[in-house]
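Researcher: Let's continue the batch. This sequence belongs to Melanoma cell adhesion molecule b, and it's 618 residues. Same format as the previous ones, please.
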Amino acid sequence: MTLRYIALLIAGLSVFTCKTWAVVDVSMEDWVDVSLKGQAEIPCIYTLKEPAKMIVWFTKLPGRDQSRRRIYYYDGQKTVIEEGSEYVGRIKVTHSHEPQNARGSAILIIDNVQLSDQREYICTVYNVSTDSGEGRTRLQIFNSPSLPVIEGMHTGISVTVEEPSKVAQCKVDDGYPRPNITWYKGRFPLQQSEEVKTMELVTTKPNGLFTVHSDLYIKVEKTDEDALFYCEVKYFVPGGVRMTETKKINITVHYPTTEVTLSVNPHDRLIKEGDTVKIRCVGNGKPPPIFSFTHNGDELSSDEEMLLLDNVSRSNSGTYVCQSFDLDTGTSFEDSINITVHYLDHIVVTPEETVLDQGDDLTLTCNALSSLPTQTAWYKHDMQLVERHVLELNNASYDTAGMYMCKVTVPSLPDLQELKSVQVSVRGKPKLTVEMAADPVNKADRSVNLTCHAEGYPSPTITWTLSDQWTGQPVPVPEVESQKTDTGVLSMISVRATSKLTVNCSAANEFGTVNVSHKIEASARVKTTTTQATSTKGGGSGVIIAVMIICLLLIAILGSMLYFLYKKGKLPCGRSGKQDFTKEKASKDDIVMEMKSGKSEEAVLLQGINGDRKSPTE
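Model: Same format as before. Here are the structure tokens for Melanoma cell adhesion molecule b:
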């Protein structure tokens, strides 16, 4: 304001120096800008030859009524603010006077400026001679609007509509003077044309502020769905113009379908029976059209754009067609795709079950029908025998009997495989294998586990008997556990040796009966010797027997030679010196040996050699 006053004073001086003084000269600005509810200062600069007698401020309302209304009066002695005016309590005037320069000023100050204050203000100065001069200033009010708001249409806009369609609206509130709205698409302002139109609605609120609505109409194209639209608002402030923008929005553009594409999931691998397959139909239009599906010409029900095939079979193979129908344009498009559901049938093994005589030959074949190349292999006990669909078994024996497994796989589709088992039995008299071992659980009870495995067909029946070695009386048989095997029957018992026992395992079928016996001692070393004997092969038992026989023969020959020398008197020892080399008796803790051969086993207790035998002279 100070600069403004200085400018007015300079203007007054120029008038004074450049021309003959007027009686009273008043200088004022053409207009003064102020924000709503702010404080306005309107200066009045005057020059006169005589002292000022009176200063009066008037207002002049806009419009046809050109009459003045006095709002302020000052006569050098007192100040009067007109009663009943809207300025009571809101205005004041500051005065200054320079007698030596014959200049002065009167500044009208208005507090809490209202929109109704926007009018013309007149300053009239009187001298003592009742001469007067006056100046005029227009007060301009400004109010910055609220932030603008943009909103797009909630429904889509079709490209097929001939006339421009409303795509968005922009609103700005509480501006003064009226704000201006400009629409933008991307970085470029939109100009009115045949394809672009805007419509504005300006509303004056009861408080005098403006609300501006602007609607944007365009003839949309398909590319407009990626465009960003927004509006720019320019509004006036004291001394200038400011600008603000709304957020950027997309609009929903509808356009017809011109192409349909079918896709299958899974798409990266072969389809097999049991899979779940999704066939999706996608059109390039928006919104999506109505889709219909057919399979080999037969109409299918579907969920909108996707056809779900659960647990597919080979009957689901064939041609699938998706057809679209656009309700707006009435156009139709289609696409098709071929699907192959691969399969592997159940295995057929011939013959399915076979009973052979010992020495027979057998050929097993394994086949499975498939839509893809297959690979076949035969297994027994999880070990692969051959890799082909034919298995040759020659010169059948008990080792031939068992469960054989055929496995058919599809190398190009590993999840596709089939298994089939076939039982091969060999007829004949039971083949019996007996194993004996210390019970690892009942070590304190000195128990012995006996296992009897009988091979043969028909499946043998196993019978256990126990008897006391001294009395020959039968002993109750413990609980028997039995289970079938691929080649026969497996039977198990656990015996606690409280006395010397004879255990017999008997296996029988229609071709004969086989028995195996075991003798068990009730000594501290039963378990150890039994375990050792059990782990010895049949050939080892024969070697032990041969060694024992040789030892017996050597001892017998040595005894005979000693006896012969004694009879001839060759030995210089008296009766008292005679000693029996076999005097010591074998204790009951002597070693128990279990003897195994290919067909039977026998336990023998060595009680001593020539024990307690007297010489002929005694």
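Researcher: Any comment?
Model: Residues 251 and 356 are 84 Å apart (CA to CA).
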